């Protein structure tokens, strides 16, 4: 049973990790916790659902989710967060809640509140070293791994990625070194949106798609971003995995209701004991 | 700034002026349709409201009650007690309704029933909570429940488990009053038959995975899992269960195990699931009339919304009771409800037929669209339960359980 | 008609109390509390539970305020060590944890089944208009007292300190004042107001269940505060009244055009309107309708 829970935890953790990646990128660079990240995920899930219904291909669904969430994310930046850039962080937070509500309202108006599902073939589990692994978990884990590889590729191998990390590290230094902030910010919001889109797609494939789905997972994503250390993409993913596994494996001990509160307790403990998270800020990027 | 304030005041005055227009109309018998148009009950609420209106239309075209037309005032509970209390206040105070029909969730009914009691009017609802049967909530016996209690559902599940020869049942419940009501009812009834209860898990809504919960239950090797669940969580749990490759049977209430579930999961996963529903009186004439009205209003089959069939019956039983009592006084009408709904008597399936029979001096027994509609001493309906087996995506009713 | 207006006024006054609490915490001191609903829930359940054990309502209300304030104590200790944004996330988590605890601890709260039959305020006057009017009078009195107290606070040395915390905490520290004590006091005071609001709510609705305490309630209060005017006592009142107009106004919209908007769409539209209000006020009128932004 432990092994099976571990497998479930890894898949769950990858979803949290991707959502946390979206949160931590914005938190580290735009400097506020983006409460609209959850609903950006939902937008990706619906776009993926439409593409999947039309084509039956999970890859195309992924493309649609990335495109839609990226667009929603960028639109939020250009229309709302950019004009507020110099305001106190509370203003940004309140506006982010507003953006989240508007996204959810629009999705509710278009798609209604009935649950929708990805029609994916279900199969019996594969036996592997005494572990029963559902094939769906392997597919989802592969999708997540590809998405993460792409995201880290952008962050570490491209010029815009290096600029993003430089801004995260020290915005003033980045500015005097001639980095154009608008370009970096656009790339940032697109990348964060794309990560949220893939997370939404995975959550949708695994569960059911409804307008509320993303908001429900927001707190866990925040917790993972904080646990991993704000502004640390690798930290966010690892913390997501840790939280996912902890939530699944701990349930026999803490009960099924409090497993949701586990994320909150972890977050509080990290903030009080080690505010820079497990992995601290990204360093040495110049 | 001042403009905004003036605008706001103007808007307030405008909304307050509205009800006065309503007041000026001719003498009618006023009822409130208080339904979950928005919020968690929204999949059902609009249909429920439309069916109150449709039934009242039929009643009015049959000459109304005691010579008066019935007038419907519609409101939204938002499936929230706070909004429902305000809506009920508006219906009672502004619209001066003489009965409120169609509150859906237990929380809403429990918050509204003190108000209807205080105003000396009837409340007809579809909630499952046991507290609604007895004082203080039902202190005046003005509350009527058109939906089988969750406890009754649980007892039906136990009958089915015995009949199907299951020995080791486990239970899983969605953490709300209805979900836990189902499984608690089952466990009590199962233990009362001298059996041992198996593993019991209560799970939270909106989780990305239910595997820990599921594995905990499956590890006790049950032969059947009895659910107190809703559609989204059932979808996720069954999908994860199928991927574990562990054989087990399922007994699930029909509001979760419905055609949408089959559509979501496909016939292979859902094969052999036992879906249980209070028998919505499909053979009956009342159901045919309701079904036609529902299709006209909602463009969907009537069977897709069991609560709308209940609100249809609410309007009809209320109207028949008024006709029977020859009065508009709540106390007198209340005394007549069981007279027109319960046996013995001539079975009638519409207001028009019942009105004619009453005029001819015969005792009637209204057979509804949602059930045969007989009330016990608490004002609860006592329906039979249909047992459906899902086979190749089809719902086949094998038998009916009476409790 | 009168009773309906009184009902709206009572719910509106409950929101005024909640908004005053948030005004003290955020508007005056700058503490970004996203878990207001948690204190509201604690007050509601505390008063309901002890009053059903036979404790008189005056005592149960005091207990509600006290318990909510005590719950704010650890949150305040956390707040001392956190930046605004982290504090917001922590309080959001606090609100959700309170709801989960209410759901789980059945022995105390009856879990998801909820608590029916909570005694009314002024039950001796019956459920009708006299009882409701007395309740309205009582809650109005509390609102006025709270508003006056807030006014007084803003003009007192205490008020100047907490506004300094909002505007420049470092400078305050340099002057030798310890912001910690003030932050905790402000949080506890605001939470006590939310707790009293919860007690009024519990004894008015007479039925409590965990699903009445979702995060949306917090953001309704934020919307009221932002629309009315951040940091102004009059803003809190105006904002809460606007909120009620919005919540109840949508009801009459259906009376006028029942078929124009389907029920499901209405829920989305209501949510979208809250969202748009939050965005537009933050963008274009951060001082709210009656606020005074020049001081910020």
TrEMBL record, chain A:
Keywords: Amino-acid transport, Cell inner membrane, Cell membrane, Membrane, Transmembrane, Transmembrane helix, Transport. The keyword Transmembrane helix applies. It is found in: Cell membrane. The chain crosses the membrane at residues 58-80, 92-113, 133-155, 184-205, 217-244, 256-273. CDD domains: TM_PBP1_LivH_like. Pfam families: BPD_transp_2. GO terms for molecular function: L-isoleucine transmembrane transporter activity; L-leucine transmembrane transporter activity; L-phenylalanine transmembrane transporter activity; L-valine transmembrane transporter activity. The keyword Membrane applies. It is a multi-pass membrane protein. GO terms for biological process: D-alanine transmembrane transport; L-alanine transport; L-isoleucine import across plasma membrane. One of its GO terms (cellular component) is plasma membrane. PANTHER family: BRANCHED-CHAIN AMINO ACID TRANSPORT SYSTEM PERMEASE PROTEIN LIVH, HIGH-AFFINITY BRANCHED-CHAIN AMINO ACID TRANSPORT SYSTEM PERMEASE PROTEIN LIVH. Belongs to the binding-protein-dependent transport system permease family. LivHM subfamily. This is Branched-chain amino acid ABC transporter permease. It comes from Neoroseomonas oryzicola.
UniProtKB/TrEMBL annotation, chain B:
Keywords: Amino-acid transport, Signal, Transport. CDD domains: PBP1_ABC_ligand_binding-like. InterPro entries: BCAA_transport, Leu-bd, Peripla_BP_I. GO terms for biological process: amino acid transport. Transmembrane segments: none annotated. It comes from the Bacteria. Residues 29-340 form the Leucine-binding protein domain. It holds the Pfam family Peripla_BP_6. Belongs to the leucine-binding protein family. This is Amino acid ABC transporter substrate-binding protein.
Automatic annotation (TrEMBL), chain C:
It is found in: Cell membrane. The keyword Cell membrane applies. Keywords: Cell membrane, Membrane, Transmembrane, Transmembrane helix. Pfam families: BPD_transp_2 (PF02653). InterPro entries: ABC_transp_permease (IPR001851), LivM-like (IPR043428). One of its GO terms (molecular function) is branched-chain amino acid transmembrane transporter activity. It is a multi-pass membrane protein. It comes from the Bacteria. The keyword Nuclease does not apply. The chain crosses the membrane at residues 6-24, 31-51, 57-79, 122-150, 186-207, 219-247, 259-284. GO terms for cellular component: plasma membrane. Its main location: membrane. PANTHER family: HIGH-AFFINITY BRANCHED-CHAIN AMINO ACID TRANSPORT PROTEIN BRAE, HIGH-AFFINITY BRANCHED-CHAIN AMINO ACID TRANSPORT SYSTEM PERMEASE. This is Branched-chain amino acid ABC transporter permease. It comes from Neoroseomonas oryzicola.
């Amino acid at each position: 049973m432990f092994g099976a829970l571990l497998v479930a935890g890894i898949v769950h953790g990858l979803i949290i990790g991707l959502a946390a990646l979206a949160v931590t990128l914005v938190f580290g660079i735009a400097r506020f916790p983006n409460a609209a990240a959850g609903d950006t995920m939902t937008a990706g899930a619906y776009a993926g659902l439409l593409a999947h219904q039309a084509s039956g291909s999970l890859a195309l669904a992924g493309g649609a989710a990335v495109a839609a969430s990226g667009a929603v994310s960028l639109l939020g930046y250009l229309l709302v967060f950019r004009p507020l850039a110099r305001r106190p962080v509370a203003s940004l937070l309140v506006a982010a809640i507003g953006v989240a509500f508007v996204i959810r309202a629009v999705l509710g108006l278009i798609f209604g509140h009935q649950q929708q599902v990805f029609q994916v073939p279900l199969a019996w589990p594969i036996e592997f070293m005494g572990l029963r692994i559902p094939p769906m978990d392997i597919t989802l884990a592969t999708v997540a791994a590809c998405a993460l590889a792409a995201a880290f590729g952008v962050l570490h191998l491209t010029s815009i990625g290096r600029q993003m990390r430089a801004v995260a590290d020290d915005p003033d230094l980045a500015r005097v070194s001639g980095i154009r902030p608008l370009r970096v910010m656009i790339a940032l919001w697109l990348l964060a949106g794309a990560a949220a889109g893939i997370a939404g797609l995975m959550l949708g494939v695994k569960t059911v798609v409804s307008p509320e789905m993303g908001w429900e997972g927001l707190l866990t994503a925040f917790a993972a971003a904080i646990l991993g250390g704000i502004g640390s993409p690798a930290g966010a993913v690892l913390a997501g995995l840790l939280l996912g596994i902890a939530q699944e494996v701990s349930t026999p001990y803490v009960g099924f209701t409090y497993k949701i509160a586990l994320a909150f307790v972890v977050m509080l403990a990290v903030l009080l004991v080690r505010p820079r998270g497990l992995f601290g800020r990204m360093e040495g990027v110049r | 700034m001042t403009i905004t304030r003036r605008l706001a005041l103007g808007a307030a005055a405008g909304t307050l002026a509205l009800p006065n227009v309503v007041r000026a109309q001719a003498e009618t018998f006023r009822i409130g349709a208080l339904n979950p148009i928005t919020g968690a009950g929204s999949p059902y609420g609009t249909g429920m409201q439309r069916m109150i209106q449709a039934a009242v239309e039929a009643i009015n075209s049959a000459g109304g009650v005691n010579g008066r037309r019935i007038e419907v005032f519609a409101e939204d509970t938002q499936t929230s007690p706070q909004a429902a209390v305000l809506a009920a206040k508006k219906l009672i105070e502004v619209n001066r309704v003489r009965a409120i029909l169609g509150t859906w969730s237990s929380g809403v009914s429990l918050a509204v029933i003190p108000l209807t009691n205080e105003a000396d009017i009837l409340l007809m609802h579809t909630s499952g909570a046991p507290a609604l049967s007895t004082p203080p909530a039902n202190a005046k016996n003005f509350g009527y429940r058109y939906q089988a209690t969750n406890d009754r559902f649980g007892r039906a599940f136990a009958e089915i488990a015995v009949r199907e020869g299951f020995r080791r049942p486990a239970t899983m419940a969605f953490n709300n009053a209805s979900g836990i009501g189902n499984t608690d009812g089952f466990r009590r009834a199962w233990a009362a038959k001298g059996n041992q209860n198996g593993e019991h898990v209560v799970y939270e809504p909106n989780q990305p995975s239910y595997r820990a919960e599921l594995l905990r239950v499956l590890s006790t090797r049950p032969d059947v899992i009895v659910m107190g669940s809703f559609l989204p969580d059932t979808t996720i749990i069954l999908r994860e269960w199928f991927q574990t490759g562990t054989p087990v049977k399922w007994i699930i209430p029909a509001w979760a195990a419905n055609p949408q579930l089959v559509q979501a999961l496909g016939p292979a996963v859902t094969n052999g699931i036992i879906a249980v529903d209070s028998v919505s009186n499909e053979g009956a004439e009342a159901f045919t009339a309701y079904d036609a009205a529902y299709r006209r209003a909602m463009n969907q089959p009537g069977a897709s919304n069991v609560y709308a069939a209940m609100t249809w019956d609410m309007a009809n039983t209320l109207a028949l009771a008024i006709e029977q009592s020859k009065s508009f006084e709540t106390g007198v009408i209340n005394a007549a409800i069981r007279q027109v709904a319960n046996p013995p008597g001539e079975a009638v399936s519409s207001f028009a037929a019942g009105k004619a029979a009453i005029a001819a001096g015969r005792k009637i027994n209204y057979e509804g669209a949602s059930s045969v509609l007989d009330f016990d001493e608490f004002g609860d309906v006592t329906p039979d339960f249909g047992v459906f087996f899902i086979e190749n995506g089809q719902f086949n009713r094998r038998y009916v359980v009476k409790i | 008609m009168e009773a309906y207006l009184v009902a709206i006024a009572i719910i509106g006054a409950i929101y005024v109390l909640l908004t005053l609490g948030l005004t003290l915490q955020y508007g005056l001191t700058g503490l970004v509390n996203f878990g207001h609903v948690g204190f509201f829930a604690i007050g509601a359940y505390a008063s309901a539970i002890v009053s059903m054990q036979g404790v008189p309502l005056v005592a149960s209300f005091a207990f509600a305020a006290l318990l909510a304030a005590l719950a704010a104590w650890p949150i305040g200790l956390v707040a001392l060590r956190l930046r605004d944004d982290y504090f917001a996330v922590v309080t959001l988590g606090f609100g959700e944890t309170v709801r989960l605890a209410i759901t789980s601890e059945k022995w105390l709260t009856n879990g998801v089944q909820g608590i029916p039959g909570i005694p009314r305020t002024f039950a001796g006057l019956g459920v009708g208009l006299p009882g409701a009017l007395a309740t309205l009078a009582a809650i109005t009195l509390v609102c006025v007292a709270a508003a006056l107290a807030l006014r007084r606070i803003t003009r007192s040395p205490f008020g100047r300190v907490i506004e300094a915390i909002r505007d420049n905490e470092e400078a305050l520290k340099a002057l030798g004042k310890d912001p910690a004590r003030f932050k905790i006091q402000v949080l506890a005071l605001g939470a006590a107001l939310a707790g009293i609001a919860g007690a009024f709510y519990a004894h008015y609705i007479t039925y409590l269940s965990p699903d009445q305490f979702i995060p949306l309630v917090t953001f309704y209060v934020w919307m009221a505060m932002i629309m009315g005017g951040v940091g102004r006592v009059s803003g809190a009142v105006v904002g809460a009244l606007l909120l009620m107009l919005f919540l109840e106004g949508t009801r009459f919209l259906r009376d006028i055009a029942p078929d124009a908007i389907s029920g499901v769409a209405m829920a989305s539209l209501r949510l979208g309107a809250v969202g748009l209000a939050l965005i537009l006020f933050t963008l274009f009128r951060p001082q709210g309708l009656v606020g005074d932004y020049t001081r910020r």
